[in-house]
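Pinned message: reference record for General secretion pathway GspH domain-containing protein
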Amino acid sequence: MNKHPQQSLGFTLVELLVTVGVFVVLTSVVLANYRGFDTNAKFANASEDIVLAIRQAQVYGVGVKGEGASFTIPYGVYLKQSTPNQILLFADRDAAPDGKYTTADNPIVETINWQNVITSLSISCDGGPCGGNELSVTFRRPNVDAVIKDGAGTVYSIATVTITKGTKTSIVTISRAGQVSIQ
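Predicted structure (C-alpha cells):
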C-alpha cells in the first residue's frame, strides 16, 4: 500500500498571526500619516483660498458682478489679523467708494471661514506694518490694478499676508498691478 503524506489544505495559526500582524502595522502607519496629510492639505487650501478670493474680487470688480446697473462699484477682499481664519469678499457700495472695507456701508458678498486651520495671520504693507492690522484689496472697472489700503485708509503699492500653523508658513504677496503670488 502506498501512503501519501498528509496535505495541508489551510493556513496554520502562525501564518494567520503573522499576516494579521503585518496588516495592523501597515494600517497604523497609514492612519498616523493621514492626520499630518489632512492638516497640511487644509493649510495649503487656506493659502490658495486667499489668492482665489483676491482673484474673485478682481473678476467681480472688472467684470461687474451685478450690483444694480452701476459699473463703478469696486469689489474687494478684507483680511484682519485678529480674525486669521476668515476672509470677507465685499462690494464697496459707499456713497463715494473709498477702496476699504467698512461694516456699515459695504455688503459682504461671501465669507470664507476655516476651522482653526491658521494659528496666526500677519499683514505688512510696503515692507512695514499696516495700520489697524487690517487690509483691504479692491478692484474697480475699467482698471485691473489693485487698490491696497490698510485700516487707516493709507494706500500702498504692495502687501504681504503671512499665515502660519505650527511650523508651516505661507506668504501671499499682492501688488498694485493686481498680481498675486504664493511662496
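Pinned by admin. Summary line: The first helix runs from residue 13 to 63.
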